[in-house]
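FORM 12-B: Structure-to-Sequence Request
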């Protein structure tokens, strides 16, 4: 029996002919072999001269893995009307086809590593009761896209975590809210997500100029207690200049585009508009180390702005198919923005997590 260790798997997509770096502001075109014979417009894998009924085609950005066991991906064509599906949705479904489409099915490049959406494998496998899904073997259960077997004895179990922090500071609109400590809890869920995250801050005070006051969240029982709404998070890549590890965790409310972390109350806070909303990204550290703890660090830069400004979302559908407030560029780059008191805000904290199972974070390669 293999161990039940949990691996948090972050693997960047690395194609043979990628011509721009991860987290570039614009998408690059990559040459792919088409999944269906003679549906491309190039003869060779270098995507040289155009031709009719070719075996290769140029694809914009990063195509979406269909996870159908055939190594097939759906991608947007670089040259207009050279695909055979009108939309990403019809490409995924495999029907209907069109004569001049913008999407096409292609195959993973031979030298491309196995393709995963960047993020968590948020489960462990065991024969214990209370898990999710059924698998014939431990090995099949631990595969990201393992085949389910009705009546199988192996199940996936969600991994939980609890966290503690020291001083945390929220700054916006000339107001600073400082909390001396906090605790939080949540769980890893899916390949790229944390879910059911609730943070409880203690000993919270606000200051605007010389005026100070006790701060609490709406509905909190303690006089200086701030309890967030239920939050969720997503693992993804960030620029090396903004994170030493290159790995970030984005936190936001459960229901974007109106993503409210918490609503604050205090006599020194601006009248009206006391909601803290939007999204914020912290650096995840360490990486390449299997252990029961990690840390998520939220920092500001020398200009007193949130340090991590661009985040590569794990899944394409979090971008192009998302509400307008969450739209990303073609390479899934998303710009998080945290607001408080109707103004741009910053958040500084260091969140120390303890997991129920040993956890490893692998950076993009």
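FORM 12-B RESPONSE
SEQUENCE OUT:
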């Amino acid at each position: 029996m293999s161990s039940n260790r949990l691996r948090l798997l972050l693997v960047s997509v690395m194609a043979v002919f990628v011509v721009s770096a991860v987290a570039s502001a614009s998408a690059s075109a990559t040459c792919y072999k088409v999944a269906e014979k003679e549906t491309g417009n190039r003869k060779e894998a270098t995507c040289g001269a155009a031709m009719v009924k070719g075996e290769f085609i140029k694809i914009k950005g990063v195509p979406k893995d269909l996870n159908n066991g055939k190594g097939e991906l759906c991608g947007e064509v670089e040259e207009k009307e050279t695909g055979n599906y009108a939309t990403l949705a019809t490409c995924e479904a495999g029907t209907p086809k069109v004569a001049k489409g913008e999407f096409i099915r292609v195959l993973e490049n031979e030298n491309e590593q196995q393709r995963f959406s960047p993020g968590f494998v948020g489960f462990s496998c065991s024969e214990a009761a209370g898990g999710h899904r059924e698998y014939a073997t431990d090995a099949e259960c631990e595969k990201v896209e393992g085949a389910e077997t009705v009546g199988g004895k192996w199940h996936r179990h969600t991994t939980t975590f609890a966290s503690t922090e020291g001083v945390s500071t929220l700054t916006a609109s000339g107001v600073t809210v400082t909390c001396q400590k906090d605790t939080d809890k949540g769980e890893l869920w899916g390949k790229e997500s944390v879910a059911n995250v609730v943070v409880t801050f203690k000993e919270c005070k606000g200051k605007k100029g010389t005026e100070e006051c006790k701060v609490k969240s709406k509905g909190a029982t303690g006089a200086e207690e701030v309890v967030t709404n239920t939050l969720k998070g997503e693992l993804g890549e960030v620029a090396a200049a903004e994170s030493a590890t290159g790995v970030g965790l984005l936190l936001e409310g459960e229901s974007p585009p109106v993503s409210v972390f918490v609503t604050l109350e205090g006599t020194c806070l601006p009248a009206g508009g006391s909601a803290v909303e939007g999204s914020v990204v912290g650096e995840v550290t360490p990486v390449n180390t299997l252990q029961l703890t990690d840390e998520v660090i939220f920092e500001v830069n020398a200009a007193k702005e949130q340090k991590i400004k661009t985040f590569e979302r794990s899944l394409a559908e979090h971008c192009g198919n998302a509400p307008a407030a969450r739209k990303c560029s073609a390479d899934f780059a998303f710009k998080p923005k945290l607001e408080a008191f109707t103004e741009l805000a910053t958040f500084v904290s260091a969140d120390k997590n303890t997991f129920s199972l040993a956890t490893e974070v692998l950076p993009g390669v």
